[in-house]
Write a structure and sequence with these properties.
Strand content: 5-15%
Organism: Equus caballus (Horse)
Number of helices: 22
Catalytic activity: chloride(in) = chloride(out); 2',3'-cGAMP(out) = 2',3'-cGAMP(in); iodide(out) = iodide(in); taurine(out) = taurine(in)
Family: Belongs to the LRRC8 family.
Largest sheet: 17 strands, mixed
Radius of gyration: 50 Å
Subcellular location: Cell membrane; Endoplasmic reticulum membrane; Lysosome membrane
Shape: elongated
Helix content: 25-40%
GO molecular function: volume-sensitive anion channel activity
């Protein structure tokens, strides 16, 4: 019998209301292995059973009861007992035989009895079976999808799915795998085979038309297939951003195992739930019966106390119960298999070994914890996802992409705009702080000098052979690898190389094999344990080396310097203040012409220097020299023409400086000199004398004997007057007198006809002598003096100086 209430309830349980429990983002299907998919279909089937039973419950009569006419003496027997062992047909026949019995009950009494017997006589399992099915199924659904909803896990899953989809669809993934496919079709090419081909083709053709790919081992070289689609700039930038996202995501997810733990917990919960459902359903399923005896004390109301009731949906519910139990058993088996899969293999570790072997990208790292677990789930869906995702874990793949983006950004035309002439007059390209070296650099065949600064992990491709005019290379904090074919090309061509790094052991070994090298400039520190030994790679191969510059913290001159003693002409050692103790190796440099020992912590002039008979220039800048009594020994260096003793703590110059008659340039600036010896005037060959930044108060008149003097720097001293004899130096071209205590300038300055530069700023001058007009070479641009003093000169003198 249908009622208005049952009709309203019908609209309360539509199937559509349960869609929210099963609906999930389509992208999440990649994290559902086959057993989760099967379990999802099983839950849908079980939910349909429950919804169907609930619908029947609220839309049809639940139970129909008739009063029992048994005699009072048989009242101890249950009503309907005589009908229970018989078949339905017999029952119906029996009912036809007792036709005509009147119960004297109206409709309201029947409804009352039906409701009362339904609540009191019907077993709770038969009564609530469809509702239990719905509830249990919903719990299964929640357990299955809980890790997709829980905040601590859903954010990681959604982020992973987002990145995975972008990696799968990225054009760079297709390009990278296509390159590998082309490489595998052509067969593996080892480093030795490449070297052999390069050596046969000659240095000029080594590597032309091919692109070197460094994979698992640095020696492995493969060629790029020609038919690979190019990425545009936007796609390249998107792929670059993906690499960064994958790196950050990997670091974040590998820190914990919350996803793995949550999946295990919800699986264990489903197994426990399955066992509980299975046990109590098997126990209570027999409680669903077609006939139900009902004994209630309603005789005062209805005249009857015993009723025989028919559970109208018992037959259908019993069949649905057995179907439900079957589905639950299958569901439980999938859960048990899930537990077996979770515990019989290490799911917190994931190896890309097969992907590395298939793709040849040997640097793809293995992953762990939640990252590994998600990749294991992905493999259950489709292993192609992890293969394509692995492309973005490879540093080699990332370097290829960076190279491609660099080539897009740095076109040959843009690079040519940066070409400039360096101090040596060579056409130079300087690149700084780039993620790599653009291949387009090697299209500039006119390039003569290449300067690379703060560029990491440079690998010169075979295209280097196109730079046929390259003579100078600078690698400043830019570690570089050079294939053997390129070494052959540069071995005799490169003349100058500069390498700057944190430690000298980072200097590439191929640098010491460039036998055509003429200048080698190295800058870096020896490790503390090696600073005393100061071991440097052998220089025997550098047969043409003329200039060696070493800026480090060595305690002695490296022994390998003697390898080039027969042809080294210039040696520069800059020690950044570290004390240089042993210099005996210098004695073997027989042809050395220039020697710089800068910031080496020297307190005396090393005796080893006096053995250098070919020495022409000596620079001892920025040391701790206080006395230079050894200057007498420089007479053995008969070719010495330049002596730089500046930036020290020298308090006086010894008298035997007169022995240095061949000396042409003497630098004594930035010391603590207060006087100069008169014997300095006997250095007749002196052309340049720099004693600026000292404490000189007067000058010896004997300076006038320096008839070859052309440059005299006396700036930043305490001179109050100049000796008139100074103006006998007729060849003087530059006279620097700024920032002293001069009160007047002698009119004899007019005798310096060759004077072209005169600096007088920062003195106490009240005027300038008009004899300055006799200095024919002195122009306004060469006269540095206060404007008021200049304006005080006669007009004709100023006009003469201002003439072009």
């Amino acid at each position: 019998m249908k009622t208005a209430g049952s009709i309203n309830l019908r609209s309360m349980i539509p199937v559509a209301e349960f869609k929210q429990f099963t609906e999930q983002q389509p992208a999440l299907k990649v994290l559902k292995p086959w057993w989760d998919v099967l379990a999802e279909y099983l839950t849908v089937a079980m939910l349909m059973i429950g919804v169907f039973g609930c619908t029947l419950q609220v839309t049809q009569d639940k139970i129909i009861c008739l009063p029992s006419h048994e005699p009072q003496e048989n009242s101890s027997e249950a009503p309907c007992q005589q009908l229970l062992p018989r078949g339905v047909s017999e029952q119906m026949g029996g009912l036809r035989e007792v036709r005509g019995l009147k119960n004297n009950l109206d409709l309201q009494q029947y409804s009352f009895i039906n409701q009362l017997c339904y609540e009191t006589a019907l077993h709770w399992y038969a009564k609530y079976f469809p509702y239990l099915v719905v509830i249990h199924t919903l719990i299964f659904m929640v357990c299955t999808s809980f890790w997709f909803k829980f905040p601590g896990t859903s954010s990681k899953i959604e982020h992973f799915i987002s990145i995975l989809g972008k990696c799968f669809d990225s054009p760079w993934t297709t390009r990278a795998l296509s390159e590998v496919s082309g490489e595998n079709n052509k067969g593996p090419t080892t480093g030795r085979a490449t070297v052999a081909v390069a050596a046969t083709a000659g240095p000029g053709k080594a590597g032309e038309g091919e692109k070197e790919k460094v994979l698992a081992e640095p020696e492995k070289v493969v060629t790029e297939p020609p038919a690979v689609t190019l990425l545009d700039k936007k796609e390249g930038e998107q792929a670059k951003a993906l690499f960064e996202k994958v790196k950050k995501f990997r670091v974040h997810v590998e820190e914990g195992d919350i996803l793995y733990t949550m999946y295990i917990r919800q699986t264990v919960l489903k197994v426990c739930k399955f066992l509980a459902i299975l046990v109590y359903n098997l126990v209570y399923v027999e409680k669903i019966s077609f006939l139900v005896a009902c004994r209630v004390e309603t005789s005062e109301v209805t005249g009857y106390a015993s009723f025989c009731c028919n559970h109208t949906k018992a037959h259908l519910f019993s069949k649905l119960a057995f179907c439900y139990i079957s589905f639950v058993c299958v569901y439980g088996l999938t859960c048990l298999y899930t537990l077996y899969w979770l515990f019989h293999r290490p799911l917190k570790e994931y190896s890309f070994r097969s992907v590395r072997e298939e793709t040849g990208m040997g640097d793809i790292p293995d992953v762990k914890n939640d990252f590994a677990f998600m990749l294991h789930l992905i493999d259950q869906y489709d292993s192609l996802y992890s293969k394509r995702f692995a492309v973005f874990l490879s540093e080699v793949s990332e370097s290829r992409l960076k190279q491609l983006n660099l080539n897009h950004e740095w076109t040959p035309e843009k690079l040519r705009q940066k070409l400039q002439r360096n101090a040596r007059g060579r056409l130079e390209l300087a690149l700084c702080m780039l993620p790599g070296l653009p291949d387009t650099v090697f299209e500039l065949s006119e390039l003569e000098a290449l300067r690379l600064e703060a560029i990491c992990d440079i690998t010169f491709p075979p295209g280097l052979s196109q730079l046929v005019h390259l003579q100078e290379l600078s690698l400043l904090h830019s570690p570089a690898r050079l294939p053997f074919s390129s070494q052959i090309f540069l071995r005799d061509r490169l003349k100058v190389i500069r390498v700057k790094c944190e430690e000298l052991r980072e200097v590439p070994l191929w640098v010491f094999g460039l036998r055509g090298l003429e200048e080698l400039h190295l800058e870096g520190l020896f490790p503390p344990e090696l600073a005393r030994a100061a071991t440097l790679e052998s220089l025997r191969e550098l047969k043409q080396l003329k200039v060696l510059s070493l800026r480090s913290n060595a305690s002695k001159v490296p022994a390998s310097v003697t390898d080039v003693a027969g042809h080294l002409q210039r040696l520069s050692l800059h020690n950044d203040g570290a004390r240089l103790l042993a210099l005996n190796s210098l004695k073997k440099l027989a042809v050395l012409r220039e020697l710089e020992l800068v910031a080496c912590g020297l307190e005396r002039i090393p005796h080893a220097i006096f053995s250098l008979g070919a020495l022409q220039e000596l620079d001892l800048k920025d040391n701790h020299l206080r006395s230079i009594e050894e200057i007498l020994s420089f007479q053995h260096c008969r070719k010495l023409v330049t002596l730089r003793l500046w930036h020290n703590q020298i308090a006086y110059v010894p008298e035997h400086v007169r022995k240095l008659r061949s000396l042409e340039q003497l630098y004594l600036s930035h010391n603590k000199l207060e006087t100069l010896p008169s014997q300095l005037g006997m250095c007749s060959g002196l052309r340049l004398l720099d004693v600026s930044h000292n404490g000189l108060r007067s000058l010896p008149p004997e300076l006038g004997l320096l008839q070859n003097l052309q440059h005299l720097a006396l700036s930043y001293n305490a001179l109050e007057a100049l000796p008139d004899e100074l103006f006998f130096c007729r060849k003087l071209r530059t006279l620097l007198l700024d920032y002293n205590h001069l009160s007047q300038l002698s009119p004899q300055v007019g005798a310096l006809r060759a004077l072209s530069r005169l600096e007088l700023k920062g003195n106490r001058l009240e005027g300038l002598p008009e004899e300055l007009g006799n200095c024919g070479g002195l122009k306004k641009a060469g006269l540095l003096v206060e404007d008021t003093l200049y304006e005080g000169l006669p007009a004709e003198v100023r006009e003469k100086m201002e003439e072009e």
